[in-house]
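Supplementary Note 3. Input sequence used for the single-chain structure prediction.
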Amino acid sequence: MTLEVDRQSAEKRFRAVFAHLGALTAYARRRGSRDADALAADVMTVAWRRLADVPSDDPRPWLYATARNFLLAEARLSAQAASTSIREPERVAAEAEPHELDPELSRALRSLTPLDREALLLVAWEDLTPSEAAQALGINPVAFRVRLLRARRRLRAGLDEPTADDRPPAALSQLDVEGT
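The predicted structure, written as discrete structure tokens, is reproduced below.
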């Protein structure tokens, strides 16, 4: 009887964790995973095996940390395959996100370091609080808030920076229009 009760409580708890599968898939897809669905499924497999380690109040930071580890491993394998000139099988084109990023925002995000970009995206796209995002990255919440503040400043500077299309032609920028 007690074994059955334990199993039912574990299944109920895992259902609450499993409810985040779609968010994990979207996270992996936005981070450029070759197979976002498989990565999210792998995270759920680890969550089931280590259910006692998954926080019961909010499993998202733990799940995102695990997904991030899988993404880093995937990137290492891709880099290793590229350096040893092993040809990967042709990739199936990833499904496009239903929305496109503004080109200026996309450029500004790409100009950030991966850590700055991840700090911003965990808060903005994954809807984590700074404390939850710090937990997902495995860093101190105060350190994360500093990183987030600096990342926001760098993003703002990147957005304010004129692009090649925005700059006036050199001859016009030196033209004295008032005749003084």
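Confidence is low (pLDDT under 50) at residues 88-99, 169-180. DSSP finds nine helices and no strands in the chain.
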